[in-house]
Write a structure and sequence with these properties.
It contains 6 helices and 3 strands; from the N terminus they run ααβααββαα. The chain is an alpha+beta fold and 112 residues long. The longest helix has 18 residues.
Length: 112
């Protein structure tokens, strides 16, 4: 495999992770999971989404390797796959706060 093809393949895989972070609902689900394991039902209630919509988002997050799932009886329990997911969430927040004035405005409005 040529270096150019190799790099393109690697960057496409990086983009899978980026795509998982490209939706506000998925970021919220990851933030909730950073607090601990949850079922689809618990996640949907906490995020204010339907169970079906939550399941779709979780499938994409799972395909990107950001969450893991385990079945317990009739329920599927989700967890973050790695502590690096939390690190990426924190980095995303810090980068957004530093470079997006709207984030700073929203934070200031919420905290005052």
């Amino acid at each position: 495999m040529a270096v150019k093809d190799y790099k393109k393949s690697i960057f496409e895989q990086f983009a899978r992770t980026g795509k998982a972070f490209s939706n506000a609902h998925r970021i919220e689900l990851l933030e909730i999971l950073a607090q601990g394991e949850r079922t689809v039902e618990q996640l949907s209630q906490a995020a204010g989404l339907t169970v079906a919509n939550t399941s779709q988002h979780l499938q994409l997050l799972r395909n990107a390797g950001l969450v893991t799932a385990r079945k317990v009886g009739q329920y599927v329990h989700y967890n973050l796959s790695d502590d690096l997911v939390v690190d990426l969430l924190v980095a995303l927040r810090k980068l957004s706060e530093r470079h997006l004035a709207e984030v700073e405005r929203l934070v200031n409005t919420y905290l005052t």
